Amino acid sequence: MNRRKFLKAAGVGVAASAVFTTNLYAKSVTRLKVCLSWPKTLPIMGEGALWFAKRVDELSGGSLKIHIYGANELVPALGVFDACSKGLIDGFHSGPYYWKGKNMAFALFSSFPFGMVADELEPWFDFAGGMDLWRELYARYNLMPFKGGNTGNQMGGWFRKPIKSLADMKGLKMRIPGLGGEVMARLGVKPVNIPGGEIYTALERGVIDATEWVGPSLDTIMGFQKVARYYYTGWHEPGSILEMTFNKKKYERLPKEHQAIIEAATREMHARIFSEFQYQNALKLQDIISGKYDVKLGNFPDDVNEAAKKAIIEILNEYSNKSKDFAKVYENIKSFFPKIRKWTDTLPKWYLDIRDSGTIVD
Ligand code: CA
């Protein structure tokens, strides 16, 4: 029996059959403008935002359209927070540490030097109060944040000269933003913040002596391996959280179904971006290890690491004394961080010994 005959036989008219081809949602389309603090073409992060828009479109049957604008297309890269807060745009993909100047507590939502790593941050946000605190503070700016990816642990940076002891750090000009930069300043480094597009030339010409960026995944695309030979592991960004944040009033006016779709799609994007960072970092690190570039890979000397640990504890305590919001978020972290670290440290010593010497399939 063909379809037409079947429908006739079943007593179902043409009008009813149309139900099967129409999407589940109303025909009206809601459109949201989301701006990025990076180009749309930036691998992993910009591409992740575009993927999010596509996913929202699929999940909503086309009834919710996210229009993605790269950095500076509608508003300046770091103007997205204010623009969204005022309702000039509907959302943005960025990182909470950029807004430390508005409220220093925001720096804590990106993790901080020697702080929690990606798999420790997840339960902090979801179950230990991190997300509630973030939303409570952002609500003052009419903003509603969601996790928007995690870069995973970042590399300490590229240096033109080797770092053999703490003395070698003194007087270095290094591009390093945020709390990492403040730690470096206490080690005698002169931290500078220059836009991503200008770092390569500044490093090549010796205007700066060192830079951090992300990790092998994105650093090798920037070409830093051509102009700095020494690449060190680091502690300044152990698991930087990105954000997909919406104008709160606009978000609250969306139908519940659309809110649920945004909740689900941001979670998917968040997981996808972290997963891709891990994947790309692994592949690109292998290029460095295999000698594809003339790069020396290493760790900072112990005296640098010890001085940095001391510095971040001082900074966190100083900020807690200056800001009630910072103190409140930091107190929450202080109660949870040791517990989760105890758990993530339960990998037994023999496992770590095997891990240090490679994997079982080497
Ligand atoms: Ca970085």
Give structural attributes.
single chain; 362 residues; alpha/beta; D-Maltodextrin-Binding Protein, domain 2; 6-stranded mixed sheet; 5-stranded mixed sheet; 14 helices; 11 strands; globular; binds calcium ion
In the CATH scheme, the class of the domain at 30-150 and 240-279 would be Alpha Beta
Q: Mind describing the biggest β-sheet?
A: 6 strands, mixed
Summarize the amount of helix as a percent range.
40-55%
CATH topology heading of the domain at 30-150 and 240-279: D-Maltodextrin-Binding Protein, domain 2
How many helices? The count is 14
Q: Label the CATH architecture of the domain at 30-150 and 240-279.
A: 3-Layer(aba) Sandwich
Which molecules other than protein and nucleic acid are bound?
A: calcium ion
Q: Please, what is the average pLDDT? A: 92
Strand content: 5-15%
Structure explained in plain terms:
By secondary structure, the chain is an alpha/beta fold. It has a domain at 30-150 and 240-279: D-Maltodextrin-Binding Protein, domain 2 (3-Layer(aba) Sandwich). 46% of the residues lie in helices and 14% in strands. It has a six-stranded mixed sheet. Helix 7 (178-186) links the parallel strand 6 (173-175) and strand 7 (190-192). Helix 9 crosses helix 11 and helix 12 crosses helix 13 (324-344). The site of calcium ion has 5 residues, from loops.
